[in-house]
Amino acid sequence: SQTIHQWPATLVQPVGSPLSLECTVEGTSNPNLYWYRQAAGRGLQLLFYSVGIGQISSEVPQNLSASRPQDRQFILSSKKLLLSDSGFYLCAWRGRGWYEQYFGPGTRLTVT
Amino acid sequence: AQSVTQLGSHVSVSEGALVLLRCNYSSSVPPYLFWYVQYPNQGLQLLLKYTTGATLVKGINGFEAEFKKSETSFHLTKPSAHMSDAAEYFCAVSLLGKLSFGAGTTVTVRA
């Protein structure tokens, strides 16, 4: 069966510090991968998605970037965090030919 | 563009009562529709999905939803609420591999 992992589970970072969140999927190959952010009062916002290694599409202009160095690894990064980057970050995957997405447990990021 | 609207940001029900969460969609093509549940500080869990075929879809935890094309709706129901149903529920529609989510409905269950 497939599983999706995210780490860290929680993170407190000062403004201006760098960020790296990691997501890995097991039990499937060549998945589509997604990064979402949930911020208070703003619902679920799609940040990036990837259909393959090195292929990243950005949905909104922002202070963040994403990379996919391996088939089942998706990384969310920032060089300098802003207060507005605080939120709950969710990674999701979708199998080829599927319609539904499956979500990881999330990372709670607080920028202070 | 595809979108969904969830009617009611908060719903409060008594334990054992019917749970009804409303979702209306907008789509220029036959939609693929989903309901997800999120418990505090957890990721989203797929409750059920409609892609093609039977319009009454059964999901996990006793939930079901009915796709009504004429009403552009995909309402979620559960006949008898349990305390464990307290969570936030999201309706979503799929387009080109991406999901567009509603704003969510928080369900509170009263003992």
Walk me through what this model shows.
The complex is a heterodimer of chains A (112) and B (111). By secondary structure, chain A is an all-beta fold. In chain A, 0% of the residues lie in helices and 59% in strands. In chain A, the strands form 2 sheets. In chain A, strands 2, 4, 5, 6, 9, 10 and 11 form a 7-stranded mixed sheet that branches. A 4-stranded antiparallel sheet of chain A has the order 1-3-8-7, with no helix packed on it. Chain B is mostly beta strands and 111 residues long. Helices cover 0% and strands 59% of the residues of chain B. In chain B, a hairpin with a 5-residue loop joins strand 4 and strand 5. The interface between A and B is medium-sized, with 21 and 20 residues.
Q: Which structural class do you get from the secondary structure elements of chain B?
A: mainly beta
What fraction of the residues of chain B are assigned to beta strands by DSSP? Answer: over 45%
End-to-end separation of chain A in angstroms reads 38 Å
The arrangement of helices and strands of chain A along the chain is EEEEEEEEEEE
Largest pleated sheet of chain B: 6 strands, mixed
Helix/strand structural class of chain A: mainly beta
Over the alpha carbons, how many angstroms does the gyration radius of chain B reach?
A: 13 Å
| Protein chain pair with the most extensive contact, residues per chain | A-B, 21 and 20 residues
Write a brief structural summary.
By secondary structure, chain A is mainly β. Chain A contains no helices and 11 strands.
